Every structure is written in C-alpha cells, then in structure tokens.
Sigma-54 dependent transcriptional regulator
Amino acid sequence: MSTEKCEGERYETSTERLTDSADGGGPPAQRGITIVFHYRDGVEVAQLAPGQARVVGRGEPSDLCLPDRTLSREHARFSLNEGRILVEDLGSTNGTWIAGTRIERAEVALGGEVMLGTVVARIVVLGTATLPLEGEESFRARLDEEIKRARHFGRGFAILAVRAPAPDAARAPLGAWVTGFMAKLRTGIDRASLYSPDTALVLLPETGAEAASQMAHAVSSAPSPGTAAHIVGVAVYPEAATTVEKLIELARGAAAGASAARPVMAAPMEAWTESGVTRLHGGMIAGAAMRDLLDAAKQVASSRASVILRGETGTGKELLARFIHEHSLWRDKPRVCVNCAALPPSLLESTLFGHERGAFTGASQQRGGLFAAANDGTLFLDEVGELSLAAQAALLRVLETGRFSRVGSTHEVEVSVRVISATHRDLDAMVKQGAFREDLYYRLSTIELEVPPLRDRRDEMDSLARLFLTEANAANGRSVRGLSDEAMAVLCAYRWPGNVRELRNVIERAVVLARCELIQPHDLPPRVRAAPADDGAQAAARRASEPEPLADESALGRPVKAHVRKAEAQVIKEALDKVGWNRTEAARRLGMPIRTLTRRIKELGLTPPK
Ligand SMILES: Nc1ncnc2c1ncn2[C@@H]1O[C@H](COP(=O)(O)OP(=O)(O)OP(=O)(O)O)[C@@H](O)[C@H]1O
C-alpha cells in the first residue's frame, strides 16, 4: 500500500486511480465524484459536486444520514474543491480513519477508502450525470413506485441482480465493473444501486420477460475482449413475484445459480406472490388464509376419504375441489362435477347413476351416469345440501358399498370414486331438522374444510381484482389498465356477501362501463359504494366514490387521502391483530418490508389492543 503524506495528511490506498479515459468523463474536479458508503445493513451512495461539501453522520443535521451505530450524529465532512477531495472529522466518537490512522483532516485520492467508525466510504467516479448509481433507500422507494405503477397500468418490469465478474472484482475500484455494465442501460429510464460490494441491482421499468432477458444478456456480455462476463439474475414482475423483497431475493437467487458458462439466469415465473398472495396454475389466488387451507387440502388430496367443503356462496369451493383433485394421485383420471341444486329431483338419480334404455319416458338409450364417468377419479357434488331425501339414500348406498345400479336395471356396477361435496348450507341444522340424513352427513364429511369468506381474505383483494380485470378486458375487447386507488379502497371496504364471484362480476361490469383508463369508484355498483352507517371506512369510501369537481386540487385530494389512509389503517390493523401484533409475520403477510410497516404503524397511530 502506498501511503503518502502531504499538507496535513494525504492518503492514497492501493486501489487504482480511475483514469479519465476509463469512464469517459472529465477530471473529477469538473464532473464530481461518488462516495459509496458500506455500512452494516446496506449501501448508500452520495454524489459530491465540485465546490460542494456533504456532512455524513447518524442523524440530522447531517446531509447524509446512515443508520449505523458506530457513527456520530455529525461524523465527517467530505468536500471537493479545486480537484481535491477532502475529509474532515467533526469530533466523532469513533473517529475517521485512513489506512489505519485516525485523521482530523486529510485529502483522499480517487479510489481511496475512509473508515467512519465501522462504515467504509469509497471514493469513486461512477456513471454519468444522467445515470447515477442510487442509494439503497431511494432505489427501494423507486421499486415501490414501480410496483404501484405496474399495478395501475397492468404492465410489468424487471429487476436484474448483476454480480461482479470475478471474485476479486469487488475489491477493485467499484467503477471498474459497475461502469462497465451501466453503460449498457437506458439513460434516464433504468436505475441501478449497489446491493453489496460485488452485486448491483438494476430496475428495468416497462420491461417484460423477453426484453428483460435480452437486456440481461447485453449487461452480462464482457465489457472488452478477454474480460469475464458479468453474472446476471433476472426477476420479472408480476410473473416471478410482486413484492420488492421477493423480487430482489429471486433476482439474487437466480444470479447465485448462474455461472461463467451460463451467465444469465431467470427466476421461475410459474407462480407469483404478492402480499403473501400466490397465484397458482389455473389462475387461483391464495392469500395467507387460503394458503393454510390449501396446505391442508394438499395433505388430504391423495387419500380416498370423502371431503366436504363448507363456506359461503362464491368463496371458491369448486375451485378448491379442483385443486384437491389436481393434487391427488389420480389427477390424470376423470374429474366430474355436478351441481345438485341445478338438477330437477326427477333427473337426479339417473344423472348420477345412469339409466337403461326405456327406463322412463325419454330414456331412448342407455346412459352410464356421472358415478360411472368419474370411476377411478373424483366426483364433485356441489350444493349437496339440496339433495332430496330419496337421492340422499341412493348416494349413501353407493358411498357405503361402492356399488350402484342404473335406473331400470338390477345389475350392480362397481365403482371407485372419491367424492368431494360442497355446501353453503348449515348441514348440522339440516340434520337436526331432519332435512339431511345424519349417516350421509358423516359419510361425506370424513374431512371438512372451511373456505373463508372474502371479507376475511382482504389480502387477496388486489390480486383478485387484477386477475378479473385482465380476464374481463380479454372477454370484452377492452383495455382498461387498472383500478384507481380510490376504487380499490371502495372494494376493500365492502363486505362482499357474494364473495369472489360477486367481485368477479363487479369488476367485469366496471370494465365494460369504465370511461377512463383506470376504473373509478363511480364505475362500481351503488351497493358496493354504499356504506353502512357504522363503518367509517365505508363512509369515506363512498365520499371518495363521488366524482369530485376539479375546482380546488387540495380539496379534491383530502377526502380521498383520508379514506385511503383509513382503509390502509384497517388492513394493517387487521393483519396485526390476526398475528398477535407480531410485526415480522404481519409484514410477511402484507408483503411489506418490516421497516415500512413499522413506519406506517407509527404514522397511522396504530396501537395493539389492551
Ligand atoms: N381464490 C380464487 N382465485 C381466483 N378465482 C376465484 C377464487 N375463488 C373463487 N374464484 C372465482 O370465483 C367464482 C366463484 O367460485 P366457485 O364457483 O368456486 O365458488 P363456490 O364457493 O363453489 O360457489 P357456490 O357455493 O355458489 O357454488 C368462480 O368464477 C371462481 O373462478
């Protein structure tokens, strides 16, 4: 290490000085420098323009505040004057150090390192004025904004995790590898930030999976012949994930799986998670409550035991029945569904068990029936509570013996069918009233699964609304881009007696009615906008749902903001209450970084129940 002292103290570390030709700019005196701070929990970047001074410390009034306990409130001042980079200690407790020596005031060269407590500050020249490397916090804030934008407009974006080409590259001057790939990004559009000394994150707005892959290959390609390629992991919103944390984790995970031979890897895209909400194959959305249910469903899927699904109408019982079948060992066998309420009692028996030719008027040919059709597979009996007592007796018989006879025949047919039934009726009460056979009830309900109503699954609301919006656009030849915050808040405040089915219908109607690119509250049906008197959030939602005169912008914003705030408080509080105010778990369920959750709890004035 060459350490040179001059005029007070001047230090230069062993890292190479960046030549002007290496990054294409003028000397630092003319274009400024970048200081990259590595502290225990992250990386922060500060730009220093010629003639400028910046104070770094743990808190205000420092210009750059880093949450590191080894820093003093105002720890050190960096300045760039006449091409010289100066650092001054501001009487800090843990000192400012260069090359192992505590300094009060010293000049640092490009590529030099300064220690503030345990925080390492590296002096580099990075990028250009139009594409600077961003600090971690501002980069994450941009990602948050990008997610909101992507939700509104139904368009995706991608995150790249770019790793330094060689293990020791991170120790080389940062600019050497970062500027190499940053030159390939779109100026003024893409954003980059250092995640760790050897990994940078890049945000590619408005970029789908294919374009992201092309960009990743461009970023990965070796900056010059004979040099190693960058390793790049790609995570695409919303296909791979829909939260900042998850996207970063997936992009980094993909980069970890890449190698020099295969330098670009993409995170899998078959499922995405948002606020802990998963979108499964077949378009099923599952938030925290549904996931617990699906875990239970998976466990019982491959037993032949009868399953009864209970829950209000439209909660997704039929979808759950399909899920169970698809997770069973006989997923390749038939899955047959019948809605018992939709069949006239006179036809029910022949529909289930088939009939012989001529068994009754109109029976012009033999039919096998649904039990036979579902042989070796699954029969889903929806609305089983609607079966007549005669049909209940016939059903009980086949469940007990595994045999049945077609109507008009004495010949018995043997079947192996897994029965899943569903009802929104209170079967216990029906048994007590004699309207449902107790023995059949026990046969059907070896395993009982309860599907929660939509009002208890508010974490799914956003994903469900977007799913139905996409489907409604496709079905109606429309291109509505999303829901306004106000419309979303109205949806969140409604009780949804018709559950997911009602939400699907409401969104379809709104897509057809929408006059703007975003669905507005007035595109929603009056019953959804109407609020019961005791529900403050709904009252606010209703106010927000009225189109506002555009006279006074501040007046327009107020009720909307108040409402959104209230609805947000309600959602956060519900999540916290559900997990006994365990913030980590609540943050996971809400899909929020814990820091954001903690901040919002404070800002919204939420307190745990006494
Ligand atoms: N978790 C979900 N993700 C996506 N779509 C869902 C979900 N749950 C329900 N749906 C949709 O909501 C509608 C109603 O679902 P489903 O028919 O499964 O409800 P159900 O409880 O069986 O209703 P019913 O009791 O009235 O028969 C369907 O269009 C279904 O695709």
Remarks:
- The pocket of adenosine-5'-triphosphate is lined by residues 283-286, 290, 311, 313-319, 382, 422, 424, 464, 500-501, 504 (CB under 6 Å).
